[in-house]
User: Fold this.
Amino acid sequence: MPGGNQQPDPSVSTPAEQAPSAAAQAVPALAIRGLAKRFGAKIAVNGINLDVPAGSFYGLVGPNGAGKTTALSMATGLMRPDYGQVWVHGVDVWEQPLAAKKLMGVLPDGVRLFDRLTGEQLVTYAGLLRGMDRDTVAERTADLLRALDLSADAGTLVVDYSAGMTKKIALASALIHAPRLLVLDEPFEAVDPVSAANIRDILADYVSSGGTVIVSSHVMDLVQRMCDHVAVVAAGNVLAAGTVDEVRGGQSLEETFVNLVGGRSTSEGLSWLRTS
Assistant:
């Protein structure tokens, strides 16, 4: 299913207006219309349209510099777009930012944390910042630290965490308020295989209970095994979007990705790179 690249049309109704009133589940968890961003002469995101169905595990894949992080930053209210609109469960992200952000948990790329707090303090702070009561925050913080194998390091300053531990504590902070939509940019980067398996189990349980996950990743095999929907992004455009089976069309997702994105080089000219 091809993705669109039109400029925003003010006459287009919102996803909530398009959905049948008796079927709230038909409203996408995330709807993007004409989203665009330019940095100087570079078009980072080129007027993309995308619907992420509620209750889906949605993969966003693309090469470095494809516009994935910029698109997710705009979709979650972290960066203002030049054009376009975004809705989270029918709530306009830029017209109702507080209401929209209450519905989301976000793990951005290159996450910056208050790293002079301990892991336990950081997750607690995230919960209190959401207006949750202290008893609930304390209970959920303990549950999350245990599930992510961070209990033994709960009292360690985040600045002393490894890259993988930092990623996990940031994920715990995104989960503390039980959001309806999780947006995770490269959540498995620098995470060890055992922790990655635990995180996948947590996310799978979350989706099976009605939540929606959007995950950006470079690992095609992981996305193919974990996600039920996928979008391929390159040069700021959505090249294909739909269920994983629709997009890959009988091939592996990696083969489809390479065919869509192109740019594969050969080893020609490296005849000197021999050991014998």
Remarks:
- Residues 135 and 141 are 10 Å apart (CA to CA).
- The mean pLDDT is 89.
